[in-house]
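This part of the workshop introduces the protein records we will be handling. To make this concrete, we reproduce a full record directly below:
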Amino acid sequence: MGQVKESSTNFENRKIMNDACPEVYAASILGTQWTLAICSYLILGKHRFGELRKKIPGITERMLTLKLRELEQQQIVKRTVFAEVPPRVEYELTKIGKDLAPLIAQLDAWGRKHKKLVNSTKYA
């Protein structure tokens, strides 16, 4: 989600909602297309930065770097650096990150169903 100044009313409202509602808290963490895409690929196993970049259409190196750092800070993604030349870095989901698998599967199923419904009624 976008950056909000800590002194703003919007920041306070987000904080109140995040504290009061676990669903809103979870959505605030996973609420971007990039975060969900990264987690969706990491559910399949460890990936290197370049592999993720190739699999996620439209993401820039900068955005991928930022999102991976955020996910690492939130303890959803683990970053492992191997002492090799050139250095090799792999990203994988942590235990709490792996707990997202059924949720992402449900979002996938719901998204496919909703997209099909909307597309079928669009031309009716």
Notes: The mean pLDDT is 88. The first helix runs from residue 9 to 20. The CA atoms of residues 67 and 73 lie 10 Å apart.
